[in-house]
Amino acid sequence: MSAVERRVWLAAGLALLCVVLHMAVGLRGNLAFVLELRALKLLALVQVAVAVAVATVLLQTVTGNRILTPSIMGLDALYLLGQTAMVFLLGGLGFAGIDPRLKFLAALLAMVGIAAAVFLPILRRHLSLYRMLLTGALLGILFRSLTSLLARLIDPNDFAVLQGASYANFSAVRGDLLVVGCVLTAAGTVTAWRLRHALDVVALGPAAATALGIDWSRQITAILALVAMLVAVSTALVGPVVFLGLVVVALAERLTGTQRHAVLLPTAALIAVAVLVGGQTLLQHGLGGAGALGVVVEFVGGLLFLFLLATERRR
Amino acid sequence: MIEIEGVGLSHHGTTILHDVALTLPKGELIALIGPNGAGKSSLLSLVARLQPLQRGRIAVDGLPVDRTPGRDLARVLTVMRQDTGFAGRLSVRELVGFGRFPHGRGRLTDGDRALIDEALALFDLTALADRDLMTLSGGQRQRAFVAMAFCQGTDYLLLDEPLNNLDMMYARQMMRLLREMVEQRGRTVVIVLHDINYAAAYADRIVALKDGRIVAHGSPDDILTVDLLERLYGYRMQVHRIDGQLLVRHHD
Ligand SMILES: Nc1ncnc2c1ncn2[C@@H]1O[C@H](COP(=O)(O)OP(=O)(O)OP(=O)(O)O)[C@@H](O)[C@H]1O
Ligand SMILES: [Mg+2]
């Protein structure tokens, strides 16, 4: 037990180190102003990291599949479609002129709404989880094809605006939206934490979990609602983040050697914080490309995940 | 007591169970036998509320299984399915410990830990306690799942082919443990068996199922006859009695 605990503390130390570096490296000019700016960005990074890590753990537990990401539910594809539709209808300038609060709220409601509209009826009819995920995946494909259709019709100048929206962007998050995001993410994370023992049992699959007294369809509905909420919040705040969750959960599992949620949830979240905050710090001060974090995380994350998959087989 | 009344089940227009009625007393070891596809697993999964009840009524200790909260039922009844199919990263001790989930919602007391140790010892798993479930052999994993069911401490255990993958020594040990649970702890065990000689040796009662219907129900002496076995399995076997013990020679 203490060996596992040490690993969790190791992840915590790593995350803390990244946070300290992010706040302290290369401080110059008006200290109060710079620190406030950095703290805001830190809050955005931490919040997205935790939301993505927790959502991925939950989805993988419910499906019993360690290589799924919440993007199988098609929510990020819906987000991109929404952004593209707005640029298409309003033009690049019009899009840039919309109140960010409105954009955030609309994106959040659209994602939660579609998740409820598509997944709840399927759950209520006791159809299989896989049918539901397949529906999500098909919707994702539909949204993506609509997005690329619209993108073709968009003025090339406006297209550049759109490309910025396709990857997560942590630089331009507003304080008031951040507060809303933090509250929702914290609520979701606390709920997941309180469910940690039930989640261990859910991971055994529907039959064994039912035998142990889990009300399967109710529990699954609650967990998927949590996933949808966490994904919607983080996507509405910064944009889609796909591979980060896969990588941090795989790393957390590799590091601690257990799938118990009391360990996996915090470790995955801490590693996600370390990756995002550390990555941002490195890009900003080492490589001078602060805006590119979203792209880099997806690229490196994808590669790292492939590597983890390839080495898993040999054990 | 397990009361099953007028239970029917169909999937995609095929009827799997036809109007099954059955009353099983408390404190017995009951073997469910019958050919592949007879409906044994389906009947067990209905009793254990693993699939919704379509027609009829099932009650365990007076609790209707389709209306009792899952949590309450999990302190009375547990089930082990034919294909446990779990391959996640979990130690044997953790798995067995999940048996205590219905009682403490995941928080283990000292009493729980003593029970887990007892289950590990009974099923000869102490040496494997800290091994990953994925790294075990099929039979070892099977024993770990039965140990979890035992650890749950319910009065009723439904076990779907728990002897799968077990060698003769462990199959015998498993049956003796179940027998002991029935005799000394007053538990009720319903077990699906394919080797009818185990049913002959250890069961108080045998229920024979074929094509979704109960063909016969009674003591091993009543059920294990040449004619009835032929009706069930479609060929004539030799039924012997050696030292007072029924023995069915079902291979040529
Ligand atoms: N979900 C399902 N949909 C359609 N048919 C099913 C379903 N589940 C079971 N069946 C069918 O119902 C019949 C009974 O199946 P069941 O698994 O209960 O048999 P069994 O007696 O346990 O057999 P075995 O000895 O092979 O385990 C079989 O013909 C099977 O094909
Ligand atoms: Mg079966």
| Helical amount of chain A | over 70%
Q: What's the arrangement of strands in the largest beta sheet of chain B?
A: 6-7-8-3-9-10
Number of domains of chain B: 1
Largest sheet of chain B, described in full?
6 strands, mixed
Total number of helices of chain B: 10
CATH top level of chain B is Alpha Beta
Report how far the terminal alpha carbons of chain A are from each other: 22 Å
What's the CATH H-level superfamily name of chain B? Answer: P-loop containing nucleotide triphosphate hydrolases
GO molecular function, one term (chain A): transmembrane transporter activity
GO biological process, one term (chain A): siderophore-iron import into cell
Keywords (chain A): Cell membrane, Membrane, Transmembrane, Transmembrane helix, Transport
Membrane topology (chain A): Multi-pass membrane protein
Describe it:
- The complex is a heterodimer of chains A (315) and B (252).
- Chain A is an all-alpha fold and 315 residues long.
- Chain A has one domain (3-314): ABC transporter involved in vitamin B12 uptake, BtuC, CATH 1.10.3470.10.
- Helices cover 82% and strands 0% of the residues of chain A.
- Chain A is built from 13 helices and no strands.
- In chain A, helix 2 (31-63) packs across helix 12 and helix 4 runs antiparallel to helix 10 (216-238).
- The longest helix of chain A has 33 residues, at 31-63.
- Chain B is of the alpha/beta class and 252 residues long.
- In chain B, 35% of the residues lie in helices and 28% in strands.
- Chain B is built from 10 helices and 12 strands.
- Chain B has helices at residues 40-47, 70-73, 92-98, 101-104, 110-122, 138-151, 168-185, 196-202, 220-223, 226-233, and strands spanning 2-11, 14-24, 29-33, 55-60, 63-64, 77-80, 156-160, 188-192, 205-210, 213-218, 238-242, 245-249.
- Chain A binds chain B through residues 64, 126, 196-198, 200-201, 203-208, 210-216, 253, 257-260, and chain B through 45, 48-50, 52, 69-75, 78-81, 84-86, 88-90, 94, 98-99, 101-102, 105-107, 145, 149, 152.
- Bound molecules: adenosine-5'-triphosphate (ATP) and magnesium ion.
- Adenosine-5'-triphosphate binds at residues 11-12, 14, 16, 34, 36-42, 82 of chain B.
